[in-house]
């Protein structure tokens, strides 16, 4: 609410014009920043309140869970004591086994394992070498003999109540008999049919046949187990791995950068072939062509050659002493570009190239940048002579090294001879000897075209001596002296000059002032103050487009200008 009150008070100040526009915008900006800050603080407070409520809820849940956990721990402790008592009872009831019986049991187990391993169909012989066995059991002494007391399958026994007995069992070596073994033939590179026939011919059997993607001809043997030139028993199986050709669609690589093209080839299971370079206007590294046309079906693993773009090397031309226009043309012809142009005061003719970077003869790549330093004459800062008398302005400009150019008279309420406008404007930089055009105030009615000395004397006799007097005069009174047609013309021109002079006092140039008067009927500052900027702009813009009012070709008339002029009048 406080922010809203501030905004309302500020709006009241603006309406009553008790505050200038700049201060108004500064205060509005400050109020907006404070309002945003307050909104951020409110959001932070809401977030903190939500966090606090969440923490309180979680704390309550944790307290409840803590109570439940305490009850569970107490119950588990009771169950543990009960288990200990049960183990003590079970220990008296477990069966016992003598050491020699345990050893016999292991022996029988080994014999059965060896029989399972060494089946007739196996291609390999197996034997038991060494085995370590760790047995957890209770040890008891009965009739002066050590007994192993084994737990039942469903017993729950504490580890500290068991002893660990470790057995090491090692079998003696048995020399294999290779007298009946035969050499395995090399099948790699053969077709599957031929390889299978050779396997049977050598007394072996065809084992498992697997396919694998390969660029080798279809069904060619690319691997075997056992390997070539190893030995195996007659009747053993030989497994084969044969090629399977896969075709893929050739992707379009033209226009891609080389790294992206390589990645696509890899993902498509194709190989990168030869990469050649060719000068091109395309960006360096761009694929210009490919050895295999896009869209065709090709074998996996095929190599694809590519042509990529590179920039040509060009020699930096010598631009020293050349005019900027000529130097610019040479740079473009060399397929280079200008990065910066710095002006430096010099006795050389303006825009003559004094320095260049890089130096002449340097080898560059197409598109590289060039920096130039060009000559410029010494510049002077134009002084402000507006509101000065024409003679005073002439003295000031002369001391600065400038000259007075064309002087135009304009009707004004300022003292006759006072400077109303200047071109170039104050603060501009220009060369020494430049002419400054001035617009000087002039109040006499003879400034109006058609009023010469004779008519001017007649008008002054009836009290009309200035343009403003004529603009405010009665048409009939003037008509008695110069005729009605001339009177209407003179008064109309006086009103135009008087109006544009008033608008000129706001800093509106003569062309714009005339446009506002003729197109928008703005004949005073009061009328401008009450005007609608949008409607006024549309009227003036339409007058220019239809040719109702002629303006110079390079003249610009913007909507923002009209808005600013109305604000100045207010």
Structural write-up:
The protein has 570 residues and is α+β, with helices and mostly antiparallel strands. It folds into six domains: 2-93; 96-170, no CATH class; 182-244, Trypsin Inhibitor V, Chain A; 247-310, Trypsin Inhibitor V, Chain A, CATH 3.30.10; 313-377, Trypsin Inhibitor V, Chain A, CATH 3.30.10.20; 382-569, 5' to 3' exonuclease, C-terminal subdomain (DNA polymerase, domain 1). It has 15 helices and 24 strands. The protein is elongated and about 160 Å long. The model has no long low-confidence stretch (mean pLDDT 78).
- CATH homologous superfamily of the largest domain, by name? 5' to 3' exonuclease, C-terminal subdomain
How would you write the strand order of the largest sheet? 1-3-2-4
Sketch the major β-sheet.
Answer: 4 strands, antiparallel
Give the count of helical stretches: 15
In the predicted model, the low-confidence regions spanning at least 5 consecutive residues are none
Radius of gyration: 54 Å
Question: What percentage of residues falls in helices of 4 or more residues?
Answer: 40-55%
* CATH class assignment of the largest domain: Mainly Alpha
Distance between the termini: 31 Å
Number of domains: 6
Question: Could you say what the CATH topology of the largest domain is called?
Answer: DNA polymerase, domain 1
Tally of strands: 24
Structural class: alpha+beta
Mean pLDDT: 78
Please tell me what the overall shape is: elongated
Strand content: 15-25%
CATH architecture of the largest domain: Orthogonal Bundle
């Amino acid at each position: 609410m406080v922010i809203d009150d501030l905004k309302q008070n500020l709006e009241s100040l603006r309406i009553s014009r008790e505050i200038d526009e700049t201060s108004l915008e500064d205060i509005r900006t400050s109020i907006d920043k404070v309002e945003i800050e307050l909104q951020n603080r409110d959001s932070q407070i809401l977030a903190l309140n939500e966090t606090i409520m969440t923490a309180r809820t979680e704390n309550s849940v944790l307290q409840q869970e803590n109570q439940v956990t305490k009850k569970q721990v107490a119950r588990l402790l009771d169950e543990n004591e009960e288990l200990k008592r049960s183990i003590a009872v079970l220990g008296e009831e477990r069966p016992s086994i003598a050491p020699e019986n345990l050893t016999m049991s292991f022996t029988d187990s080994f014999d059965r394992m060896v029989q399972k391993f060494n089946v007739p169909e196996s291609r390999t012989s197996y034997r038991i070498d060494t085995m370590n066995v760790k047995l957890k059991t209770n040890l008891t002494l009965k009739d002066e003999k050590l007994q192993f007391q084994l737990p039942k399958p469903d017993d729950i026994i504490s580890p500290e109540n068991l002893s660990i007995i470790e057995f090491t069992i090692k079998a003696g070596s048995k020399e294999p008999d290779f007298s009946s073994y035969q050499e395995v033939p090399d099948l790699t590179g053969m077709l599957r049919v031929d390889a299978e026939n050779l396997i049977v011919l050598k007394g072996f059997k065809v084992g498992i046949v697997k396919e694998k993607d390969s660029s080798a001809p279809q069904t060619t043997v690319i691997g075997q187990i056992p390997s070539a030139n190893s030995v195996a028993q007659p009747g053993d199986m030989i497994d084969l791995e044969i090629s399977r050709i896969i075709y893929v669609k050739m992707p379009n690589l033209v226009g891609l950068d080389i790294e992206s093209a390589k990645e696509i080839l890899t993902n498509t299971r194709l190989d990168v072939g030869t990469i050649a370079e060719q000068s091109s206007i395309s960006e360096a590294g761009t694929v210009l062509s490919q050895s295999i046309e896009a869209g065709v079906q090709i074998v996996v693993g095929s190599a694809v050659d590519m042509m990529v773009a590179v920039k040509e090397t060009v020699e930096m031309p010598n631009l020293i002493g050349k005019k900027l226009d000529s130097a610019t043309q040479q740079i473009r012809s060399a397929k280079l570009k200008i990065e910066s142009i710095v002006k430096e005061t010099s006795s050389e003719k303006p825009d003559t190239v004094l320095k260049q970077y890089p130096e002449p003869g340097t080898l560059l790549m197409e598109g590289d940048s060039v920096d130039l330093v060009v000559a410029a004459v010494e510049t002077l800062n134009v002084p402000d002579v507006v509101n000065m008398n024409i003679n005073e302005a002439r003295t000031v400009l002369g001391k600065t090294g400038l000259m007075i150019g064309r002087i135009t008279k304009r009707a004004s309420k300022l003292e006759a001879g006072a400077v109303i406008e200047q071109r170039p404007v104050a603060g501009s930089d220009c060369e020494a000897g430049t002419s400054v055009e001035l617009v000087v105030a002039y109040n006499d009615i003879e400034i109006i075209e058609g009023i010469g000395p004779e008519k001017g004397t007649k008008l002054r006799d009836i009290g009309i001596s200035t343009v403003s007097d004529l603009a405010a005069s009665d048409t009939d009174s003037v008509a008695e002296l110069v005729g009605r047609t001339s009177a209407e013309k003179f008064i109309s021109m006086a009103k135009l000059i008087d109006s544009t002079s008033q608008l000129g006092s706001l800093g509106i140039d003569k062309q714009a002032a005339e446009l506002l008067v003729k197109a928008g009927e703005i004949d005073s500052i009061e009328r401008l103050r009450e005007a609608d900027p949008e409607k006024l702009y549309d009227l003036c813009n339409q007058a220019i487009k239809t040719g109702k009012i002629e303006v110079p070709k390079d003249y610009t008339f913007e909507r923002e200008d009209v808005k600013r002029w109305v604000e100045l009048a207010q």
